[in-house]
Amino acid sequence: MSTQGSTPQRGRGIYLLPNLFTTSALLAGFYAVIAAANGQFETSAISILVAMILDGFDGRVARMTNTTTAFGAEYDSMADMISFGMAPAFLMYSWSLSHLPVAEYGQLGWVACFVYTGCCGLRLARFNVQVGVADKRFFQGLACPAAAAVLASFVWVCTDIGKAGHELIALAMFATIATGLLMVSTFMYYSFKDLGDSKKVPFAMLLGLLFLLVTTAVDPPKMILIASAIYAAAGPLYALFRWIRKRNKRSAPRVE
User: Fold this and answer.
1) Digit-coded pLDDT (tens) for 124-149
2) Would you tell me which of 98, 134, 152, 166 could form a disulfide with 48, CB atoms 3.0–4.6 Å apart?
3) What are the structural domain ranges in the chain?
């Protein structure tokens, strides 16, 4: 059979650079589990935040270098499940929720952590089927890295100020379940994915980024917790704002 004029087939392979970032994020998430198992809770929390930073690079690098592949997308989801689904839940259980009295509360500690992990898996599956359909400027539900940042920075702040996990079981339980449910919610969150699409950015944005870097450098754990908590609350607050505005429009008298 003649092959004249046909396009040569490229060998099936993977691109190194974006998948290297994904692998690094997976390694950071895996190490977070090991650190939490050894009682190094602050190190575990920092490792999760490092994984979040690396995860933010892989997709952007793939788009910038035109190396986006289906393999990379699936590999990224698998890594996210470990770094932002399993690692934060195990950290919260090891640090705080494992101290729940079994005789009184049964297995609520690990159940709450499983709720978080299960919601993370559902969130990733929903995101994968919406790729190419949903508006990339917004996420439906809290993104998994952002949810992990809330829990990791919460543990980091508490260990930094000398608060033990068994002293904050109720707050840890609320944070774990709340972030899990926010991931599978229908609240809309700004994704920040369009910030690097244009070559020019407003000068005010550069000042804002500079201010954010300076304030974060002053006290990293507290500033990351504040920023991640505000972002997590932004979805419900924006939905409440839209509901109030819609109700006011309906109740406003019509002018003839």
Assistant:
1) 999 888 876 766 778 889 999 999 99
2) 152
3) 16-192+204-251
